[in-house]
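_Full entry_
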Amino acid sequence: MIIISGIACQMPAKGKNQFGMPSRLHEGIGRGRRRPRFVVAAVGFAAAYAVIGIRLIQLGVASVPETAAVADRVKPSRPDIVDRNGVLLATDLKLASLYAEPRSILDADEVVEKLSTVLPDLPMAETHRRLRTERAFIWLDRHLTPSQQAMIHALGLPGIGFRPEVARIYPAGNQTSHILGLTNIDNHGISGMEKWIDQQGLTDLQSAGLGSAGELAPVRLSLDIRVQNVLHQELAKAMETYRAKAAGGVVLDARTGEIMAMVSLPDFDPLVPAEANERDRLNRIAAGTAEMGSTIKTFTTAMALEIGGATLNTLFDASRPLRVGHQSVRDPHSKGRPLSLEEVFRFSSNVGSAHEALMVGVDAHRDFLRRAGLLDRLRTELPETAQPIQPRTWSQATSITASFGHGFATTPLQTAAGIAAVLNGGNLIPPTFLTRSREEANGLATRIVSERTSAAMRFLYRDNAVRGSGRRANIDELRVGGKTGTAEKVVDGRYSRDHNFNAFAAALPMDDPEYVYLVVVDDPRPERPGMGSTAASNAAPVAGAIIARTALMLGVRPSFGRVADAEVTAVPAPRLSDR
């Protein structure tokens, strides 16, 4: 209340005149007081939203690629695998894998029902049970095709998503399965060269986040996929023709130890890993042992020349069986007379080979086989190699049976490497699945026989292909040499005449061998009624077919119109300086 001229007057309410109407004066004054506070608040909110927006943009542009890059480094692609000519044998393929977040799924029945339209092999009952749990994450299916991913995405199912993963693919399929091996669902090598790659430190690089596809150079193998393809085709044909239980083969560079091709049948599809665990899918060339039969006479004969002082003309009494304890060593097709060393090899005389072993003695025989690499486990890049089987103690009987390829078991790959050593001038070179130069090979070589002995063995191999059991593998223009081996298999604890493990070892050209071929046919049946089932009737012609198709691929030039081979009538016993 204000007193004016003695009259008391009541002030109107704030913001209203004396009539109760809003006062413009007070309104203007109120607005003037509120405006700065409003402007400050508005500017503050705008600034805050701007900061948040800028940060979101930064996260969207910078943080996501950085996270993806880190993920890519932690789980990089494996290096490609290529053959010696750069042909792709194994590579990574980026695929999507399907996952679910059960906590976010409202209707498990709907999800399972719709997913089954795209993934008919999805276990519906098990998937339904898992989707009804309170788990935050579960895998539903791995490595989907792009079309499967697109169809599932179109279903619009909540709680269902995809994660990028990497799957290993093998363009050559079954043909290289025993060499390349397998990776598991997480793309880690579990067998073959894939496992070897991980053993070189790839897994450590992955876990440390230091590996990426751009940093991993391709792994170049010694294989020639063209030769591998021919070997696979001819062995598959042989299994069908001879109704064999299995077949296998290897092509080896005799000068470097490089494995140009290796096949073991039956093989497996690397995209169906379960097949690799089936009993008959064993790699019979490197991971399986067998009595190699008369191919072992290569070493027995070389031993007689190198250690026993024999020559090609040395005579051995093969006129009658040789008694060993309660058993007798016989020749299936005895000549009934003494045989020269040359004839012992060409006629594949068991009795003559036994006398060659007796010439050097038990200890020297065993030591020679060990030096040739037949009695100890072969070490290559391939993890799957077998330990040869031999008697705990060697007796004279052991030595005699071993002379013609019975009584001990080794791998075909070891046999091929040893034969290469006998024929290449006498140097045992460890086999390898990686490329290797001649200089590197020479640095690894171990001499097992002299050049003089090796020259005599080259003559015997060529002679056997021309006049002996290797005739069905002979190709004159390529100067092929070879040795058959027919080993009776053990059935119910006894050697069976009706079940053989057949092998044929070949080399070319015999002037200076560049490549060794070894073919095995396990338990073949006669091609036609009345025919035999020896190595000469099946393993030899299979090897000949392989040689005919691959020699030019390997750079072996045929020689047409060449004069007949010069005969070697005698090779003196090697001097100490030659050994």
Notes: The first strand starts at residue 2 and ends at 4. The chain has three domains: 1-33, 81-220, 227-578.
